[in-house]
Each structure stands twice: as structure tokens, then as C-alpha cells.
Amino acid sequence: MWSVGLGELHDPDAVVDAVSSALTLREGQDAAPESLLVEYLAARKLLLVLDNCEHLVEPVAELAGTLLRACPELRILATSREPLGIGGEATFRVPSLTMPESDKRSAPAERLGHFEAVDLFAERAATAVPGFAVTENNQDVVAAICRRLDGLPLAIELAAVRVGVMSVEQILHRLTDRYGLLTTGARDVPARQQTLQWCIDWSHELCTPAERAMWGRLAVFSGSFELDAVEAICADPVAADQVVDVVGSLIGKSILIREADAAGAVRYRMLDTLRDYGTERLQETGEFGSLLRRHRDWYEHVVLRAESDWISSRQAAWIVRLDVEQPNILAALQFCLIGSSEADAGIRMAAALYPYWRVRGRLREGMRWLAQLLAVQDGTPSMDRIKAVRVLGVLSGLHGDPEASALYVERGGALAAQLGDRVAEALMADAAGHHALVAQDNATACRHFESSLAVFRTDGNLLYLT
Asked: Matching PANTHER family, A to Z (predicted)?
């Protein structure tokens, strides 16, 4: 079984690349990515899980249809808020957790544990109050809470954690009061959505002002993130020395999830529903744009550090770090497409990701981002633009497109001549050497590489010498 998470992917053209990356397939020079997937999967019997497809239904449906027609032993499980709409699709609506019916007499407490909703409530409540258990004294109230929340797992988790500050009777009373208010509001919204929204509203109200501010600010992250990123992006107005405490409080209230990898590194993440809610609250404050910019600046810093550290004993660690940071890096690059004033940072990031994209075989991904960012940037000759054009030329050649490689080498050479910088000219000579290799002109390639190496040795940049 292979799982591909699409929740953080926003580019429809990147769906095929995301699946290829999850299967650890490297791109070929001539074959289309879809063909490589078909070739890999055709002789294999496996289950491919495509998770969170609702915002990418059309490209996912097209890819799924192609793969299923060509790969007889392949099975695809797609999670989405709407069907893909392809032949042979069987839809299964994920039900709420099982829970006691309201018109049944009280069952023995041990029998209630057979209901998924009650079991989840008891498990989460016990994390807030060690020793908590469903007993004959509280079983009816717990069952009523689960019914009131329609058996929705997230809503039950948020309610259960409140046993740390109130009794189950108080929880039910507050849920009942709030539910009454909601049913007099927007009747065109499904009751299930009302219940979840209201439960998150309630959880938000029970947070301190500092926790609410942090909740909203953490919504700028995509996927998981580390504490140093929180401190760099979200610390204000929370004092820097309070960040750890506030993050810990949000973990305790089930707003944040703490995860640790095999090496012991701790990261945090937020469920999509809670992040969407936090985004709405953040937009109300007027800080959304500035937080996105700070988010972009931080991940630009991470990528540039990885590039400067690439030729060292830490390269393997950086590859792992960039792997896990992909959702945030891609979100930062996406932000850079909003205008030419932001594109400069995106150009620097994309060019710095060249060794990572090459190691991971994500040539098309790198080419796509570089082309989009260069199109948004104003085109003024600069060292950053020349580096980006050089990388785009090299990647195009490696991907088997010598015509595009030649075009970018020509454009980059003209920019370097305008800039009049010897390092810029050496970079484009290096790109010309790579193009000559693709064209199987080894003598010309050697001439270009020798001229560029003479400058790179003086400049001292180890990455250009490899």
C-alpha cells in the first residue's frame, strides 16, 4: 500500500509529480511522468491511497482513470468530499462513530465501551484527567454528549478534553445551550456542520487571548512545523519566552498535535478543520498578509541554509529536513507568485532548491516553479535571476528538452552580459556546458566547464565546483 497526501497540494499540474514522488520514482529524460507511473504499476498488485482529493477532483480523476485502465492489479482508494466520477467507481460515505441510541434504557457501563463515540470520549478524557472512566454514574451524560455531537470524532475530542476544567454534566449543559442558539440561526447549513463549527467556537472561547492569537497565527503553516519556526513567525504579540508555554497549552487542549520522529525531533501539526478556522480568525485581525510574508521569509532562510550546507557531512540530514518541510516550502513559493515584489524571494528559493530537486529526481517540479516565478518577476537583470535561468536551463537539459535548454542558456548569457559580472558569466558558461553534454558535444562542454571552473575556484563556492 502507498499513500499520497494531496491536502497541501494546490497545483493541479503537480498531481502526477506528487504520486511519482510518493512512489519514489525518478523522472526519465524522454518518458512522460504518466507513462513512468503506468510502467511501474502495470505489473504490481497494490493499493494506492489518494487522500484529500476534493480540491483536485479533475486531475485526480484523469490520472486515476489512466492508471486503472492500464494497470489491472491496481486498486485506488480516494478520500474526497465528492466522488471522482469515473467508470467503475464505488462510493462509500464514511459514517459517524457508533453511539448509543437516545430511546434505549441505560446499558451497563462496560457495554457502552462497544460504541466508538463513547470509547473515543473516554480515551481522550483520560488524557486530560488520568483515571477518568465511563461509569454507571456518568454513562448517560457521556452518551448524551456523543449524540449531541453527532458522533463526529473531532467534536468529541474537543469536548472530551474539557473534563480537565469541568464535569461531564457541565459539558453537556453548555453543549445544549449552544446547540439551541445555533438551530435558530442559519437553517440552510447542515446540522452536522453547525455542530462542528459550534464546538470549535466553544473551544476557541475557552482559550486565553494569547492562545487564541497563537491558534490563528499557527494557521499560516502547511503540514507540520518545528518550534523554531513558531518562534520566528508567530512570537509577536506573544512574548518570545511564552511561546513554549502557549504551544504546550494548545497541545493540552487538543488544538495542536505533537509528533516525534525516529530521531526524536519534535514537530507539531493542526487538523485541517482547525487550521481553516484559525485562518478565518487570523484574517479578521488584519495580520494575515504580514504572517504569510514572515512564513515565506523563514522558509527562504531554511532553503538557503540547506543550499550553503549542501556540500558537507550534513547533506543527508538536509535532504530529510527538506522532505518534511515540502508543504511549507511549496506554500511559501506559492505566496511569491502574487506579484513581482514577492517574486524575488521565490526566485532565490527555487534556485537554491536545485540540488534537492536533482537528488530527489523532481526535475519537472523545479522547472515549473522556476518558469512561473521568472514570468512574474519584472525581468531586471540580477544575479538571482541569472541563477534561476541557469538552473532552469540545466534542469531542462536533464529532463530531455535540449531546445528549451538552449533557449535558457541564450537568455541567461544575455542577462549576464548586461550585468557585467564574471560570476554571472561563469554560471551561464556552466549552463552552456550542461547543454553541450545533452547535445553530445563533449569538446564544447569541456571548454565551457573549464572557463567556469576557473572563476568558481576563485569564488570558493563548493556547490558550483561539484
From this structure: HTH-TYPE TRANSCRIPTIONAL REGULATOR RV0890C-RELATED, REGULATOR-RELATED
> Does residue 255 contact residue 268 with C-beta atoms inside 8 Å?
no
Picking from 283, 385, 296, the residue whose alpha carbon sits closest to that of residue 338 is 296
Helix, strand, coil percentages (3-state) for the chain, rounded to 5, are 65, 5, 30
Residues 67 and 190 in one domain: no
Cβ neighbours of residue 367 closer than 8 Å, sequence gap 6 or more: 392, 395, 396, 399
* CB 364, CB 27: distance < 8 Å: yes
b/e burial code for range 297-306 (CB count within 10 A of at least 16 → b): ebbbebbeeb
What is the distance between the alpha carbons of residues 412 and 427, in angstroms, rounded to a whole number?
9
Same domain, 333 and 376: yes
Q: Is the peptide bond before 190 cis (omega within 30 degrees of 0)?
A: no
| Tens of pLDDT, residues 227-275 | 999 999 998 755 667 899 999 999 888 889 888 877 778 999 998 888 9
Q: Among candidates 374, 373, 375, 390, which has minimal Cα distance to 425?
A: 390
- Domain C-terminal end among 234, 269, 286: 286
> What does residue 235 show for φ and ψ, rounded to 5 degrees?
-65, -30
The pLDDT score that the predictor gives to residue 183 is 43
For the beta carbon of residue 276, count every other beta carbon within 10 angstroms: 12
Q: Which three cell numbers stand for residue 136?
A: 454507571
Q: In a 10 Å sphere around its CB, with 0-12 CB exposed, 13-18 middle and 19+ buried, how is residue 275 labelled?
A: buried
Both ends of the chain: CA-CA distance in Å?
37
What is the band of 187 on the pLDDT scale with cuts at 50, 70, 90?
low
Note whether 116 and 179 are same-domain residues: yes
For residue 399, which of 369, 352, 344, 361 has the smallest C-alpha distance?
361
User: Cα(10)–Cα(283) distance, rounded to whole angstroms?
Assistant: 20
Asked which of 78, 100, 135 is the last residue of a domain, the reply is 78
Give me the CATH number covering residue 335.
1.25.40.10
Residues 344, 447, single domain; the answer is yes
pLDDT digits (tens, 9 = 90+) for 385-404: 999 999 999 999 999 899 99
**Do 219 and 303 share a domain, yes or no?**
no
CA 309 to chain centre: 24
Domain count, the chain: 4
Helices (H), 184-242: 191-205, 209-218, 227-234
pLDDT band at 458 (very low <50, low <70, confident <90, very high): confident
138: containing domain? 109-205
